[in-house]
């Protein structure tokens, strides 16, 4: 299996992948067109922030299973396109947290004391001490937007400098924030109103793009200093430039830009009150080593189906590695495949019904497994656990789940009810022992059969001779019956027969069985 790496990465990444038996092509600086031309050969792609993994690359990548980001931000990867194609996107966010928090502190200090400007001035032969008077951090208020991994480490360090730390993050509670010395505020406006320094540590997404613009800067204290070591585009660059030129913002420290590398004559970068670094937050020996090792290990574990760690679009996949859940996933997939082959009409909705605590807790991945089984039969494109819910949504399939205590006699029972424009069909299954999967019900009929191999499924009137008629046709065609299950309402009423056979059923045999009086809806099901 081949893995492509398109950004510079520590050697340890390549060594780990090779030692696990993978072929690695290291091609930093490769063009987009070249990636598109060769990507089909690879099962995994590893990038840092230098490669934009766009939908057109992803659509060429027919064999790609994983896109690995050696680092935190996945905004350079079209995660939706990857999910649609069933490709896992994973990152290694923890590996560069400390380095980025330390770089943020370097920028805060350098901004407060004009260090880059003073350094440049002295190197050009001057000795200006007055020109570079700065401000102390001690006693100042810093507003941290985004109290995730990096935001929290920045908070701890700012506290050590005697700063008053306030923060905003919609998912962090006041109690958690307090542990890091942060006073959580309820509104961003309070950050703008109270802060002497503002630092952003949020991901770049539709919500955060341009979140600090002209209006927000106007709400800030006069003389505020702004730091961005997260992503370019979170702060509107032109609005920031205007606010600095007007004197409302005293200065800015930027590690990241809306376009990277930025244009050479970028007026914000050129401004004397702005200090910049070329996306160096994670650029330490330690961070690069950590993310290189982490991404290599995560990719090996995922490709060898040992564990899924760091997936940003497939959290549920970790459950697919759970040995206890695995047989139920196979069962759900087989039920989906079975349903797809016996249903009449166009599928409108699917409801997963789960009995037993373990199944209730795994409902999402069980539904994905069912959809994988059903949609792979009904559609021409490959469907897996990752893209199954997306494809279901796209084709307008309504998917829901219910919990139930109606278990029959089973501790754990899966039931999938599918509604089409013509009928409703419910199929239930369970697992005996550790991994003996069984279908135990179709609609109101109870029986037990292994969902595997070739099955003949038909409805019939429960009267003598039905089975004999079918078996004599099969015998004449030298088709061996391997197993038989019968479910019926009552004597003389409707019944359902599931017959497992050892050989393929030719069309003429199928027609002959279908023509038997009292037998209808004959289907060949392959599982
Ligand atoms: N300059 C560099 O080299 C590096 C930059 N980064 C960037 O730093 C940023 C933070 O990274 P981590 O701390 O690892 O991420 P994280 O995922 O641990 O934390 C992000 C936090 O932002 C919060 N958040 C999301 N939307 C928000 C909003 N609208 N308002 C306020 N808070 C919001 C989330 O709830 C979360 O707590 C990311 O943009 C990442 O790409 C990360 C590593 C290196
Ligand atoms: O790969 C890098 O050096 C950039 C790191 C980064 O921006 C991230 O991890 O989000």
TrEMBL record:
Catalytic activity: (2R)-3-phosphoglycerate + NAD(+) = 3-phosphooxypyruvate + NADH + H(+); (R)-2-hydroxyglutarate + NAD(+) = 2-oxoglutarate + NADH + H(+)
UniProt superkingdom: Bacteria
A biological-process GO annotation: L-serine biosynthetic process
Domain ACT: 455-527
One GO molecular-function entry: NAD binding
Gene3D superfamilies reported for this sequence: 3.30.70.260, D-3-phosphoglycerate dehydrogenase, domain 3, NAD(P)-binding Rossmann-like Domain
Species name: Kryptobacter tengchongensis
EC number(s) from the headed UniProt entry: 1.1.1.95
CDD domains associated with the record: ACT_3PGDH-like, PGDH_4
Cross-referenced Pfam families: 2-Hacid_dh, 2-Hacid_dh_C, ACT_AHAS_ss, PGDH_inter
Family: Belongs to the D-isomer specific 2-hydroxyacid dehydrogenase family.
Name of the featured protein: D-3-phosphoglycerate dehydrogenase
NCBIfam families found in the cross-reference section: PGDH
Role of this protein: Catalyzes the reversible oxidation of 3-phospho-D-glycerate to 3-phosphonooxypyruvate, the first step of the phosphorylated L-serine biosynthesis pathway. Also catalyzes the reversible oxidation of 2-hydroxyglutarate to 2-oxoglutarate.
């Amino acid at each position: 299996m081949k893995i492509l790496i398109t950004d510079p990465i520590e050697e340890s990444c390549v060594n780990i992948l090779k030692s696990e038996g993978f072929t690695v092509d290291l091609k930093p600086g490769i063009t987009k067109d070249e990636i598109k031309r060769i990507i089909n050969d690879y099962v995994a792609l590893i990038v840092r922030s230098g490669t934009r993994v766009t939908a057109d690359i992803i659509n060429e990548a027919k064999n790609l299973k994983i896109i690995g980001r050696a680092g935190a931000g996945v905004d350079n990867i079209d995660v939706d396109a990857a999910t649609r194609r069933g490709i896992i996107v994973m990152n290694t966010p923890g590996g560069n947290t400390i380095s980025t928090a330390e770089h943020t502190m370097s920028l805060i200090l350098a901004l407060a004391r004009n260090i880059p400007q003073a350094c440049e001035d002295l190197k050009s032969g001057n000795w200006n001490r007055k020109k570079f008077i700065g401000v102390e951090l001690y006693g100042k208020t810093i507003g941290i937007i985004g109290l995730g991994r990096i935001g929290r480490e920045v908070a701890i360090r700012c506290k050590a400098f005697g700063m008053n730390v306030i923060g905003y993050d919609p998912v962090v509670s006041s109690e958690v924030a307090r542990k890091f010395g942060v006073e959580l505020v309820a509104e961003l406006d309070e950050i703008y109103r109270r802060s002497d320094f503002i630092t952003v540590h949020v991901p770049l997404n539709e919500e955060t793009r341009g979140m600090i613009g002209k209006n927000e800067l106007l709400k800030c204290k006069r003389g505020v200093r702004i730091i961005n070591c997260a992503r370019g585009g979170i702060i509107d660059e032109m609005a920031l430039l205007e606010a600095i030129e007007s004197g409302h913002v005293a200065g800015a420290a930027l590690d990241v830009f809306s376009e990277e590398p930025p244009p050479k004559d970028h007026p914000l970068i050129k401004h004397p009150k702005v200090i910049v670094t070329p996306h160096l937050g994670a650029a330490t020996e330690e961070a690069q080593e950590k993310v290189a090792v982490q991404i290599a290990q995560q990719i090996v574990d995922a490709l060898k189906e040992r564990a899924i760690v760091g997936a940003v679009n497939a959290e549920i996949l970790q459950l697919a590695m759970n040995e206890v859940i695995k047989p139920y996933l196979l069962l759900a997939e087989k039920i989906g495949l079975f349903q797809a082959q016996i249903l009449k009409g166009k599928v409108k909705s699917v409801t997963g019904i789960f009995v037993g605590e373990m199944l209730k807790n795994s409902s999402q991945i069980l539904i994905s497994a069912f959809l994988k089984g059903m949609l792979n039969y009904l559609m021409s494109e490959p469907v897996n656990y990752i893209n199954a819910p997306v494809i279901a949504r796209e084709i307008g399939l309504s998917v829901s789940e219910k919990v139930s205590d109606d278990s029959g006699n089973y501790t754990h029972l899966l039931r999938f009810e599918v509604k089409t424009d013509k009928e409703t069909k419910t199929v239930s299954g369970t697992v005996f022992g550790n991994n003996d999967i069984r279908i135990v019900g179709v609609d109101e009929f109870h029986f037990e059969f292994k969902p595997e191999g070739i099955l003949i499924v038909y409805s019939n009137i429960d009267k003598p001779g039905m089975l004999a008629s079918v078996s004599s046709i099969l015998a004449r065609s030298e088709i061996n019956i391997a197993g038989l299950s019968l479910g019926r309402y009552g004597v003389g009423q409707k019944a359902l027969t599931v017959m497992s056979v050892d050989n393929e059923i030719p069309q003429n045999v199928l027609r002959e069985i279908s023509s038997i009086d009292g037998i209808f809806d004959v289907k060949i099901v392959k599982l």
